[in-house]
Each structure stands twice: as C-alpha cells, then as structure tokens.
Amino acid sequence: MKKVIFIFFLFISTYLISPAQDQIILKSGYIAKPDTIWVFIPVDYKNDVNSNYPVVYLLHGWSGNYHQWNDIMDCQSYANEFGFIIVCPDGLHDSWYINSPVIKESQFTDFFFSNLMTFISDNYNIDSNNIFITGLSMGGHGALYLFAQKPELFRSAGSISGVVDLSFCPDKYSIDNNLGLSKQNPDKEILNKYSVIGNIEKIAASDKEIIFSCGTEDPFYEINNAFRKKCDELKIKAIYISSPGGHNYEYWKSAIKYHFQFFGQKI
Questions:
Q1: Mean pLDDT, the chain, as a whole number?
Q2: Containing domain of residue 115, as a range?
C-alpha cells in the first residue's frame, strides 16, 4: 500500500511494512535529502483507537541510520512491552541533529521540531504529555541537545554513550564541517553553543529529570563524568548509570532497557 501526500513543502511517502510498523519518507526544505523514519506501534494500537500513546524518539549514532536501533534491540518488542510508539528518524549520517551554522541544507533541529514531530502528532494517537527522547553517541548528544532547546515538548530525555561535549573531539566525526571550524584553531564559543554541556543551564531551568548512561571503557566516559558533575552543581535531577562497557552494540543493548524503564515510570 502506498500513499502520497503533499503538505506545503513536504512530500510524504508512507508504506506499511507490518501491521505494527510504518516507514515514512519526509522531504523538507530544512535538509538536503529525504529523511526515512521507522515507526514501531504497540500491537494493540489499532484495536484501541480511543487511547493516546506515549512516544519515544530514538536517535542513532554517527555514521548510522534509521534502522540502527532495531539492529541493536527489537524495537517492536519494546513497543509492545512498554506501550510506547517508538520513532526512529535518520540523522543523515553525521548531522549531529543541529542546525548547522554553515550548511544551509543541514538544519536538522528545525526539521525535527517543525516537520517530524508535527507529522507524528498529526498522524498517530499520541499522548503529548508523555513524549521522550534518547539516543546513542551522536544521538545521545542529539537527544539532550534537542531536549534543551524545547524542554516543554518533552516529559524527559536521555543519552547513552553521548558526546555531550563536542570540544572533546572537534576535528572528528564531521563536527568541524558541521560547525565551520578550523582544524588549526577550533572556535570554543561555537563548540560550547552546540554542545549539550553548553546548554546545560536550559536543562536545569526545565526542572525535569533526565537519565544518561556511559560504559567505563567508553572513549566518552570522561566527558560524561564531567557532565554528571555539572548536573550535580546545578542540582539537575539526573540519573547517571556508569557500568562496565564500551562504545558498542552490546553496551547499548543493555543500557536502553533502563531508559525505557525510567520513561515508563514517568507515565
């Protein structure tokens, strides 16, 4: 089944891939190419048309794509078990989920809020009071960064192995290209502006509880510890899970369980 809809500058193609899953393609003026989103719907959703469901946005890591999370864990099983609509967008390889100050067609933050969230709200029975977001690595950064920009849209947010401070690796993973940085002299002000840790006061002002996790053998463990210290200083309500593990699928598969349990307790 294929359905084509024209909504202003959006071209939306959706096709049903299972009774409880949709794949959606959104084309937007904010991004250079169409974005593919995989939506997992609780198995009882279609038989319960009068109920609204909480939503979890899952953001993938650098060089990943919209199906990375389902490669790690069974998203449909999580949707069924926890009763969440799970939305897995494509971060377009290396967007960092930000509005690039130098790449006109890489305005992912605007795409996320103006196009993606609007589409999900318009086309699914969602509980707008219970929207959550988390992700891994680049997606961990993206989840907390997006939460910091508009915390009023979310109940809570999380991060797994998140690159919460972009100044830790400014010349890697396309960070310099996205921010227009010189490899010889990275602009610390720009790095801070687009880092989670540079937006931490917005998180504090939200007075909402967050969760973040990082393995003790992860290359980003040091900056997650620093983020925890800053959360403590600002009295942010945060759960920090530090446990053995590296920057890999095995750790992410284990860590995501705690995020869903945490979000589920918020409903």
A1: 92
A2: 39-266
